[in-house]
Amino acid sequence: MAEIIKVYKEKLPKLRFIGKCYTDADRVDGGYGHKWDEWFRSGWFEELKEIGEVEGIDNGYLGFMRCFPNFEYWIGVFLPPGTAVPEGYGHIDMDEGSIGVCWIKGKEENGEVYCMHDECIAKLGEHGMGSFRQSDDGRSYFFERYNCERFLEKDEQGDVILDYGVYLAE
Questions:
Q1: In angstroms, how far apart are the furthest CA atoms of the chain?
Q2: Cα 35–159–99 angle (5° rounding)?
Q3: Mean pLDDT throughout 98-102?
Q4: Can you name the residues that pair with 20 across neighbouring β-strands?
Q5: Model confidence over 28-50: pLDDT tens digits?
Q6: What is the CATH number of the domain that holds 116?
Q7: What is the percent of the chain with per-residue pLDDT over 90, rounded to a whole number?
Q8: 4 neighbors 120 (Cβ within 8 angstroms)
Q9: Number of domains the chain is built from
Q10: Beta strands in the chain (DSSP E)
Q11: Contact between 47 and 16 (Cβ < 8 Å)
């Protein structure tokens, strides 16, 4: 069973998220794993890495979600503000702000680390981070951050750590 092993607040600078947007219509068996496979097969992460990266933050591949009125699931990375958006990609500009982060430890292959949204929201609330930022159009922002060191390197029990971040209202 997956568990939340760490909860903390992290400050992010102004960022540009660059990636590709998917909707509920793109789900297969309830998820977007096939889209992640497509990203790796197509070399899209490498293409974005060539543009650069943001210094001073915990970089990683992101599953970035926006909610209300419709759900969007983006795959991509954070880049410096104003970065030119390559053809075929979209972007979301993010203001400087704080995020609440939960480290979810568990098994990746059975999907248990991916089913912890409600638990993370509750745990952030317990740590005084229960007020979430909304965009001008009323959307909340959440993301899965796949930090290569924590997510790709299994521990002795075969567990990985997935970061789950939520933009906070300040």
A1: 45
A2: 65
A3: 97
A4: 75
A5: 998 999 999 999 999 999 999 99
A6: 3.20.80.10
A7: 78
A8: yes
A9: 1
A10: 3-12, 15-22, 61-67, 72-79, 90-94, 97-106, 140-146, 160-167
A11: no
Task: Using the structure block, give the residue that is written with the tokens 């104003």.
Answer: 82
**Domain range for 64:** 3-167
The CA distance from 145 to 162, in Å, is: 7
In the block, which residue shows the tokens 């939520």? 166
Q: Is the pTM of this model over 0.90?
A: yes
User: What DSSP letter does each residue of 41-61 carry, written as one string?
Assistant: HHTHHHHHHTT---TTS---E
CA distance 154 to 140: 31
- How many residues are there in the chain? 170
Structure-block tokens of residue 125? 């609330």
Please name which of 17, 4, 15, 169 lies closest in space to residue 98, comparing C-alpha atoms: 169
- Inter-residue contact 79 to 52 (CB < 8 Å): yes
